[in-house]
Amino acid sequence: MQLFRAFLLRLATTAVTLIGVAVIVFVVIRVVPGNPIAMMLPPGATEADIARLTAQYGLDKSIPAQFLIWCQGVVQGDFGTSITSNQPVLRLVLGRLPATLELSIMALVIAVVIGGAIALTGTRNRGTKVEAALDVGNGMALSVPDFLWGLVLILIFGVLWPVFHISGRVTPSLELPFTTDFYLFESVLRLRFDLWADIVSHMFMPALALAIPLAAIIGQLLKQSLKETMHLDYVTLARTKGYGENHVITREALPNAILPTLTLVGVQFTFLIGGTVIIERLFSYEGLGNMAIDAVINRDLPLIQGIVILFAAIFTAVNLIVDLSYALLNPRLRHGQ
Amino acid sequence: MSFLKITGLSARLKGTAFPILRDVSLEVAAGEVHGLVGESGAGKSMIGKAVLGILPASVEITRGAIELDGMDLLSLPPAERRRRIGATAALIPQDPLTALNPSRRIGPQVTDRLVDILGWPRARAETRARELLAEVHIPDPERVMRSYPHELSGGMRQRILIASAFAAEPKLIVADEPTTALDVTVQKQILKLIAEMQARHGTALLFVTHDLGVVSKVCQSLSVLYGGKVMEATTVRDFFRQPAHGYSRALLAATPKYTDPAASLTPVPDAVIAAVQAEIAAHDRSLRHG
Amino acid sequence: MASNSGTDGRSQIRRRVGLKLWLSAGWLGVLVLAALLAPWIAPQDPLAQDLFLGRLPPVWQQGAEPGFWLGTDSLGRDVLSRILYGARLALIVALVAGSLTCLIGASLGLMAGFLRGWVDVVISRAIDIWMAFPPVLFSILLIAVMGPGLVSIILAIVVIDWTRFARVVRAEAMAQGAMDYVASAQVAGRGRVSTMLTEILPNVLPTIVVLLTLEMGIAVIVEAILSFVNLSISTDDPTWGGMIAEGRTSIHQAWWVLIFPLVTLFLTVLSFSQLGEGLKDRFDPVLR
Ligand SMILES: Nc1ncnc2c1ncn2[C@@H]1O[C@H](COP(=O)(O)OP(=O)(O)O)[C@@H](O)[C@H]1O
Ligand SMILES: [Mg+2]
């Protein structure tokens, strides 16, 4: 009951946050000097043409009025029309969302695997040179953002030892039988492992770049939390039962050590999603972020707005999911204590 | 035939000369209850931990031998030693609130050793766990086995830990101050329960306590420790009748009424401590030269 | 007893922390010198184009020209000279944007954390909303709105990153405000603002200094990202991000155009961050 009330409160603050984001974007992009409509018409268009088109996009009204119109549209699932491509924003954005989601989730999986391995290895070898070396590596990985790791990966695996693709989402010459935009998932469902391999080979470098800082954070936090847990009485009791180090770390300590790491990973995952914007640009990966930068450069106001709101919605959704899973995973909270 | 035999065991703080245990020898016969008494910091827990192979990483054994059921523990490879200890000995821990894994249900925590280490079929282990929980007077064992630790009281959890310790029919149980973390009212019940279980299963018991009143009730023999050294090892009867060592006498005198478990230890006189420390220093010197 | 090995370990950590600090500070010192002395030490004019000298490799490779130590880009501009001049923009942005962000963010955080009440509500809500923005996209958007240029970059960084300071300083100020000595200062009849400045601020200052150092590294990265998407200052002026963008496109023909600015940027960001971490360890009375 208490949990439910807290959940409702969270939903309310989430709504307030999203509205705040919408207002800010709305105001910011309408301060743009120069009329974006004038730029999209061919030379020789008359003032009347410009005025007609401006009115069509609703850009002649006051900003609050525009915001209300926009909100009415959003409620009906209409996010406006892209100025550059003349297509509904919602369609464009939903077309690119799967690419970005697949990339983010792949990055998260890589980060969890690497970070988990670092934490477990570090705990297994605590107090030795191995742990010290892992700490140094972690510190480096944490200090340098995904953008630079992306460039480093491009140099290493794109040029010096070219084993991965460093640009695009899939080799353009390939025939794609997909009906959805979730290429990675659909290729598995259709058992087209040739396509799957090609997609993964494109995705791996940007995903790894996004994953490196998060992996370091997971490695550091989880290791610290594991090491603290290893001193607890129930771990010692398990040792007296005849269990070895590996079992004790993974079965007794890990389930309890994961919880404190989880909330932080949630916040960090939103940072990772934010990082897709520049990483997609860097690897010419056709996702939301790449589209967003194009939209900004082309001053495509409705599209920018749609993308930023969508990003904000994803961020808040991730935070909500993390809080919920925290409550569900913690037996103490689950039983209402 | 002694079931547990410790000979000349010395341990120190790793990388230093700071002694934790000094030339400790003691024997516990099969089915016997042996008390380890002494003030806080005397090294009682360290002996129990050494026997069970769970010494902290900061403590290293420098010499001596631990023989459990005829096996020389310290000469076994670590994995083998762990398995043997798990199969023949068990621990009743001090604090029931921290000794159960909060994210695992009770059932698996009682049965895991039976299934994973001793290779029992799961169904048989679960039946055994239910019987044991009933034996330690837990109502509705079925429900308790599905519970998480935080849903149960401290006394309840200590009963579960006792049941879990007896699950594999170990020949030796180390009980490290099993009642100090409990309410005074619960302490008596738990103490009675341990004595009752020990008698029924005929298990040897290494009973760590600082409470001489408890020793007089449950133990047959005892070792008195100070500064990691055994000052006196004798039977309970002789100890209370005619304590041989000056420190033992001071300890006894400091317990105003050892039949009263609630009475706490009052400090041992400084003069006695000084004498004991001189004795330990002499002993250390003889070890170094001998 | 236990202190024996403890002191050893601790002094070892100290030494390692010290080394990190000195290496980072050393690299940043070199960078400052390079930026200040660029006109005198740069071997070439960073803007001079010569298509006949395009994509020259570094001097130790075949086909190099003397005087172009680290090679040239596709327009024949000297890579080393452009890196040296690029340090100017990077450091100006780090210094100015970092300090401004710090000033604004820390002030807001201090006010929210100490004054509480509606001030805290407003600032905290704003922080929540800010946290829901993808920062890179937000900065690109701001630059697109304000137009490229040094002032825009700095403003964009301030507008986006003030929350980093505000969040941490707010929490610290709240913790400090709950302590006894603050209460006794208030009892002694001092005003709230005066208490805030004389009792709270000095105690959160170490945290602020650490955050500022970290923020400078972030500012350098943001500038590089903005010039990478071609939204920084005028496209001719040498920026590390611009050089990296150029290097990215000609990576298969001329790896040196990417690698040298990249290494410079990498070391700079790493140094700011290690300096911040090192300072944190120094200030922390209980070493981790
Ligand atoms: N984890 C540890 N690492 C190193 N020394 C310890 C540790 N725990 C206890 N000691 C030291 O070992 C000695 C004996 O402790 P212990 O056996 O726990 O005493 P007690 O008789 O109260 O059970 C004490 O001097 C104590 O300071
Ligand atoms: Mg003890």
From TrEMBL, chain A:
The keyword Membrane applies. Pfam families: BPD_transp_1, BPD_transp_1_N. GO terms for molecular function: dipeptide transmembrane transporter activity. Signal peptide: none annotated. The keyword ATP-binding does not apply. SUPFAM superfamilies: MetI-like. GO terms for cellular component: plasma membrane. It comes from the Bacteria. The chain crosses the membrane at residues 7-32, 103-123, 144-164, 199-222, 257-283, 303-329. Residues 97-322 form the ABC transmembrane type-1 domain. It is a multi-pass membrane protein. It is found in: Cell membrane. Its main location: membrane. Keywords: Cell membrane, Membrane, Transmembrane, Transmembrane helix, Transport. PANTHER family: DIPEPTIDE TRANSPORT SYSTEM PERMEASE PROTEIN DPPB-RELATED. Belongs to the binding-protein-dependent transport system permease family. This is ABC transporter permease.
Automatic annotation (TrEMBL), chain B:
It holds the Pfam family ABC_tran. Keywords: ATP-binding, Cell inner membrane, Cell membrane, Membrane, Nucleotide-binding, Translocase, Transport. One of its GO terms (cellular component) is plasma membrane. Its main location: membrane. It is a peripheral membrane protein. Residues 4-252 form the ABC transporter domain. GO terms for molecular function: ATP binding; ATP hydrolysis activity. Belongs to the ABC transporter superfamily. This is ABC transporter ATP-binding protein. It comes from Tabrizicola oligotrophica. The lineage of its organism: Bacteria, Pseudomonadati, Pseudomonadota, Alphaproteobacteria, Rhodobacterales.
UniProtKB/TrEMBL annotation, chain C:
One of its GO terms (cellular component) is plasma membrane. It is a multi-pass membrane protein. Belongs to the binding-protein-dependent transport system permease family. GO terms for biological process: peptide transport; protein transport; transmembrane transport. Residues 87-276 form the ABC transmembrane type-1 domain. This is ABC transporter permease. The chain crosses the membrane at residues 21-42, 89-115, 136-160, 204-233, 254-275. It holds the Pfam family BPD_transp_1. SUPFAM superfamilies: MetI-like (SSF161098). Keywords: Cell membrane, Membrane, Peptide transport, Protein transport, Transmembrane, Transmembrane helix, Transport. It is found in: Cell membrane. InterPro entries: BP-dependent_transpt_permease (IPR050366), MetI-like (IPR000515), MetI-like_sf (IPR035906), OppC_N (IPR025966). The keyword Aminoacyl-tRNA synthetase does not apply. PANTHER family: D,D-DIPEPTIDE TRANSPORT SYSTEM PERMEASE PROTEIN DDPC-RELATED (PTHR43386:SF1), OLIGOPEPTIDE TRANSPORT SYSTEM PERMEASE PROTEIN APPC (PTHR43386). PROSITE patterns: ABC_TM1.
